[in-house]
Amino acid sequence: MQEEGRGHQAFEGATKVREKPPSLLDPTDYSAAAWLVACSEQRNRADLWQRTVAAVFLTYCLSLGGYPMDWFDESPDFYTAPSLTKRPNRLPASWVAACILYHLQSVSANGHSYSEEVFVSLNNLGAVQPQHIVSCLYPTLSLVNHSCDPNTFRVCTGGGASCFIAALRPLPAGTEILDCYTDCFSIASKEERQKELTSHYLFQCACKACTEDWPGFLDVRMVAMRALKCPQCKEVFTLPARRCSHCKSPKAVVLYERLTNVVLPKQFELVERGVVNGGSVKAAKKLLEDMNALIERPNFVYDRAQEMFKMAVDFTHGIWALEPWA
């Protein structure tokens, strides 16, 4: 029997052991992974059984490789967590297996896909195919919650050794930072997103894009989504009206047409040609900020500008490669 409030968190659960996480997660310290959720309560028996068998097998492999552990002679201090000042010479094998079991659950719920952008043609750098390389665990980024309409996106650098998030729109103080664990709403349908989230992350998304079933790029409903916020009176009106229905100002329509027909195509052409630098990223950021202030979402043009901004940041700061036959 375990003593009350003690024991490894793989056995005890989040409510007792994980009461007080550190104020700062050190991404260079692997023990930070122990503070990430494992979603054990949401897993079915088959999932837990498979991971338990895998944990025992990996523990046995470590034992064969010479890792110091006791299989049948459990230490009296088994239920006291080892520390830098109190480390037994040999850990109980069940403790090692418990650590691995928690790891196997935590990684599946918190891991991020590391991929590089593969450009298949020098003549058209807009033809990009993301290439999955490996799954990584970034403890700090794993604390960011999900939304199918995120306000940030991840950029992998340094061969996957590091990763940072960049804002997709202005984030006032107190705004929750949101990441997208799967394809965002403009790329994948609601059914596809929910299936992926339920399967890999064991939850169903209830973000605005899901609850309102926002259309994506390939959805015919997206064509009709054209509402603008009047810069004069801040009221929302719908195109094809040429003026604000409230104050009759044409400013919103004039600005929308300039951003849509002049600024966005010009910037997209530069990105697709690979003419991208710090100035290009700033210009794409400015375009996105202007659209954010003007356009009521969802909107095809806004989402296209957002994808262009992500491409520009990836091109200048992320990992990309050119196919040898290009």
Automatic annotation (TrEMBL):
<keyword id="KW-0489">Methyltransferase</keyword>
<feature type="compositionally biased region" description="Basic and acidic residues">
    <location>
        <begin position="1"/>
        <end position="21"/>
    </location>
</feature>
<dbReference type="InterPro" id="IPR001214">
    <property type="entry name" value="SET_dom"/>
</dbReference>
<feature type="region of interest" description="Disordered">
    <location>
        <begin position="1"/>
        <end position="24"/>
    </location>
</feature>
<dbReference type="GO" id="GO:0032259">
    <property type="term" value="P:methylation"/>
</dbReference>
<keyword id="KW-0808">Transferase</keyword>
<dbReference type="InterPro" id="IPR044421">
    <property type="entry name" value="SMYD4_SET"/>
</dbReference>
<dbReference type="InterPro" id="IPR011990">
    <property type="entry name" value="TPR-like_helical_dom_sf"/>
</dbReference>
<dbReference type="GO" id="GO:0005737">
    <property type="term" value="C:cytoplasm"/>
</dbReference>
<dbReference type="GO" id="GO:0008168">
    <property type="term" value="F:methyltransferase activity"/>
</dbReference>
<feature type="domain" description="SET">
    <location>
        <begin position="76"/>
        <end position="182"/>
    </location>
</feature>
<dbReference type="Pfam" id="PF00856">
    <property type="entry name" value="SET"/>
</dbReference>
<protein>
    <recommendedName>
        <fullName>SET domain-containing protein</fullName>
    </recommendedName>
</protein>
<keyword id="KW-0963">Cytoplasm</keyword>
<keyword id="KW-0949">S-adenosyl-L-methionine</keyword>
<dbReference type="InterPro" id="IPR046341">
    <property type="entry name" value="SET_dom_sf"/>
</dbReference>
<dbReference type="GO" id="GO:0042826">
    <property type="term" value="F:histone deacetylase binding"/>
</dbReference>
<keyword id="KW-0539">Nucleus</keyword>
<dbReference type="InterPro" id="IPR052097">
    <property type="entry name" value="SET-MYND_domain_protein"/>
</dbReference>
<dbReference type="GO" id="GO:0005634">
    <property type="term" value="C:nucleus"/>
</dbReference>
